[in-house]
Amino acid sequence: MSFLEYAPAPESRSVLHLRDEYGLFIDGEFRPGSGESFATISPADESHIATVAAASDADVDAAVAAARRAYDRTWSRMSGRDRGKYLFRIARLVQERARELAVAESLDNGKPIKESRDVDVPLVAAWFFYYAGWADKLDHAGYGANPRALGVAGQVIPWNFPLLMLAWKVAPALAAGNTVVIKPAETTPLSALVFAEILQQADLPPGVVNIVTGAGATGAAIVRHPDVDKVAFTGSTGVGREIAKAVAGTPKKLTLELGGKAANIVFEDAPIDQAIEGIVNGIFFNQGHVCCAGSRLLVQESIHDDVVDRLKTRLSTLRLGDPLDKNTDIGAINSAEQLQRIRELSRIGEDEGAERWSADCAIPDKGFWFPPTIFTNVQASHRIARDEIFGPVLSVLTFRTPAEAIEKANNTPYGLSAGIWSDKGSRILAVADRLRAGVIWANTFNRFDPSSPFGGYKESGYGREGGRHGLLAYLKGAAA
Length: 480
Ligand code: NAP
Ligand code: MG
Known about the structure:
15 helices, binds NADP nicotinamide-adenine-dinucleotide phosphate, Aldehyde Dehydrogenase, Chain A, domain 1, alpha/beta
């Protein structure tokens, strides 16, 4: 049902100057990789975007050596003020090339252009601006006088926010005086490679940031490399566990940002229209490929039916389709593997007795797609209430009292984020105080700001990114 038909409004791909092939970015220049190159594709239509080099152990070794040289010879000798100038320059270039970066991100990842354009890329610039400001003020960060960098940081990031996760890792590392070897995810290397061009444009000294593309083995080579002083990882809890084992017993510092299964708690006195928007944003933003997604809706029993009805009505208006179309709300699932996982967990949800409802939207013939989906009659023991689905699937549970809401919300191996919707400030504070989650949003969801620390409890990992706290992970002597 639609009163107004939208004409297609695709963003032009011509702003993006794609190369057919991308090498590894080591020591300030692109060079061939000695691993077997791979293709990156658009998940919206499975078309080939570019061929990308894969870094072997030897290539990772060269990248770490370049980072070490840059650390010893230039970056660690430079004043904080001068490092800050480079970071400001990178931030401004990200803004200048924002449209191109947004197109690259939506093309490679499948996320709607309105999200990459209005959320991802502006936050990337904000992260560099913010940490640029810290570079000459480390003495005032609360970590003692003259805090020292660690050295070479090895960083591995996932595919859900490819460029934003790069910014979260690279900006604080450089501000604190470290050099970097970073690996983007195999399915989303493109924006990191455009970012490498930005580093060249910014005249960043060679070797300060090295970008090595490849699969899990490349990530493992970075993690295990003996000359890496710090490992920072964002991704699945399973791989995070392997990394923790690999790093145990070495002097390397480690931060892990892993999965989540956040509770979004809606009390009967909540501003309901606002809450509906917040629930939708909480789980359907970025196709639900969000570690802090509000994937478990805990709704007070008295308003359950009303909330579910309103959600269905709202979801029926979302537009699923071409990620580059400016009117698209729901883009493509990032990969065939991820789609398979979402389908599998949804099937298990039905088998376990939950009731499935999916928005009735046309699914394109090619590419990887999953309609916005709600499960009701979900029990806390169901897999769909426990496992991270990492897709556009909401599990709805109910509660009667605030105490029950808190107990259910905390009944998870994860602890990354949570949301509370209520008109009553005292209730919000009382409940927030008892939730074991790193970030708690009140009457909003999925808000990010570079000055605000982000990170988890329990199986969601350890260490904080963002804010003054985010510097801790990249400074000597400071715990994290
Ligand atoms: P993942 O397998 O943990 O991958 C994250 C990053 O680690 C990627 O760059 C990956 O490379 C790399 N990697 C894989 N195996 C590695 C190893 N043994 N050592 C070092 N690096 C390794 O996560 P994913 O495949 O992207 O997603 C799977 C699940 O992880 C999702 O369903 C979701 O549950 C969770 N996830 C969480 C977040 C978050 O932000 N917390 C983000 C993404 C995914 P390749 O890409 O080349 O495999
Ligand atoms: Mg891709």
